[in-house]
Amino acid sequence: ILVTHDLDEAAQLADRIAVVHRGRVLQVGPPAEIRNKPRDLTVARLVNLRNLFRARVMGHEADGTVLDWRGRRIRVPVGERLAVGAEVVWCIPTTAVDLAEGEPSSQTAGENRLQAELAAVTLLGEMARLTLTLPEETGERIIVSLPLHRVQGLGLTPGRRVAVSLPGGAIHLMPAPTAARMDGATVRRRGRD
Q: What is the structure's pLDDT at 193?
């Protein structure tokens, strides 16, 4: 048994992780499951997921569920049926987000594309963390982790507009609490939030 606050260390050494918060076990599972499919928003925050967003279920199609994320359609191949109109929180690992070739309007199966602006590049050894902002004044940011050689090869610098790909298979849905702290600000139910 190893007790640690370092998720990377736990993922390297453990076959199973138990996320404990305030004396309660919130989720138990393999490291990849804990990171990619947290049970709820609390677990997602405790494992330091950076891409957490609120959305509303628009409907269901043959290939999955369609979400309304601030006026954008996001397709997620979800097996379970969520109630139309239900609020959810969706997340995607920083390593699953990719920069796409071509225009955001050229959707391919299982892929959600959108336009963003590169706000910052943080070098982390052989990897780089990119902070992307959406063109609208929503305050939403998407964090992307890419190998440094790819960032340098593409000439990615702050201010550049990029097409972003959010693979539907990497998106995980969680129930949305009625009031939640996301990105340091309290988000309450209102309109299309």
A: 38
